[in-house]
């Protein structure tokens, strides 16, 4: 892979990050399957917490309410926004529609930023819900689990979005190198 | 195009087809027994995910036009199909676990349902792997 050494002067990191563009179609498809599986796994963790909360017998100091839904909705919305962006328009070498292409690149980057902010906000929100609602009042065993499920859900959605991002960028690099 | 394989799993094709169909029937038997033995038909929803799982690939694969040489390949549509299929497969395994955790079904019913799901998916995957017409790029 001589490409690493060619643009040595443009690199930010000292240690080269390996390009994933040589993995090919099969690995890319597998990555998208894994992303979908992780997304479903995260949501099922949360649904488990919701169902367990609503079928719990005995008095419970807290229950899963709408507050617990908000981080997951934010994360999913962020993932949706990120995947709406045409990846080619981020790179700047796309076809310039009107005048300069830098404005399109900047618009795409702003939307990308909003999407990642939604996802990071979802993860941070789930951790804060876990702390404020479940850990600090110290409710005990089955209740803290609901908050942990929320964190697991948002982390899984974030990893899913990362895998999807890498896999889809693999494809576009692949087709561009042809 | 390669020729159809004349042996799969060290068995002739005809016998392995018969064996796979037995495994598929066993999988469905396990799923149905997980409902019928306990008189609780909630795990039957798992079958819906088995039916729905291959559908997105079939629908969006046609949109993507991978087979069509004249149109350019649109990977986005195929990606939606793969994503939804992965989602459905995990749903099929998570549904019994969540039901068992909530106390709706018993743990043996969960184990039978998941084992049946593994057998059914294994049959579908190995069947489509070995008996589909392989295309060489």
Automatic annotation (TrEMBL), chain A:
Domain of life of the source: Eukaryota
Protein name in UniProt: Uncharacterized protein
Lineage, opening ranks: Eukaryota, Fungi, Fungi incertae sedis, Mucoromycota, Mortierellomycotina
Transmembrane regions listed in the UniProt entry: 30-54, 110-137, 143-167
Membrane topology designation: Multi-pass membrane protein
Pfam assignment, any one: UPF0220
Cellular component, GO, one term: membrane
Species of the source: Podila minutissima
Compartment(s): Membrane
Keywords, alphabetical: Membrane, Transmembrane, Transmembrane helix
From TrEMBL, chain B:
Keyword check for Membrane: yes
Main location: membrane
GO terms under biological process: late endosome to vacuole transport via multivesicular body sorting pathway
Organism listed in the record: Podila minutissima
PANTHER family xref list: LEPTIN RECEPTOR-RELATED, RH04491P
Keyword annotations from UniProtKB, A to Z: Membrane, Transmembrane, Transmembrane helix
Keyword presence, Membrane: yes
Protein name listed in UniProt: Vacuolar protein sorting-associated protein 55
Cellular component annotations (GO), alphabetically ordered: Vps55/Vps68 complex
Location(s), subcellular: Membrane
Alphabetized Pfam families for the sequence: Vps55
Membrane topology (UniProt): Multi-pass membrane protein
Family, per entry: Belongs to the OB-RGRP/VPS55 family.
TM region positions: 17-39, 45-65, 77-99, 105-127
């Amino acid at each position: 892979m001589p490409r690493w050494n060619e643009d040595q002067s443009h690199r930010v990191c000292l240690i080269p990050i390996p390009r994933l563009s040589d993995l090919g179609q099969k690995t890319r498809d597998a990555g998208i399957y894994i992303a979908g599986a992780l997304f479903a796994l995260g949501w099922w963790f949360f649904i488990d917490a919701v169902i367990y909360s609503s079928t719990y017998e005995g008095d419970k100091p807290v229950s899963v309410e709408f507050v617990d839904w908000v981080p997951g909705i934010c994360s999913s919305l962020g993932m949706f926004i990120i995947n709406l962006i045409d990846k080619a328009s981020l790179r700047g070498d796309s076809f310039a529609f009107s005048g300069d292409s830098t404005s399109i690149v900047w618009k795409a980057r702003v939307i990308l930023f909003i999407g990642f902010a939604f996802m990071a906000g979802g993860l941070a929100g789930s951790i804060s819900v876990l702390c404020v609602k479940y850990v600090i009042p110290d409710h005990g065993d089955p209740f803290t689990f609901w908050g942990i499920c929320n964190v697991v859900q948002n982390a899984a959605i974030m990893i899913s979005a990362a895998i999807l991002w890498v896999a889809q960028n693999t494809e576009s690099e692949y087709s561009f190198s042809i | 195009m390669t020729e159809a394989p004349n042996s799969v799993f060290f068995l002739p094709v005809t016998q392995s087809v018969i064996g796979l169909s037995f495994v598929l029937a066993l999988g469905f038997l396990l799923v149905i027994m997980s409902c019928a033995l306990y008189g609780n038909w909630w795990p039957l929803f798992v079958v819906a995910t088995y039916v729905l799982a291959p559908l997105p690939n079939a629908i969006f694969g046609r949109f993507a036009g991978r087979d069509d040489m004249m149109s350019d390949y649109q990977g986005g549509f195929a990606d939606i199909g793969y994503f939804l299929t992965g989602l459905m497969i995990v749903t099929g395994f998570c549904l019994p676990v969540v039901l068992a955790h909530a106390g709706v079904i018993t743990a043996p019913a969960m184990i039978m349902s998941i084992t049946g799901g593994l057998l059914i998916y294994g049959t579908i995957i190995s069947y489509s792997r070995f008996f589909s017409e392989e295309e060489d790029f």
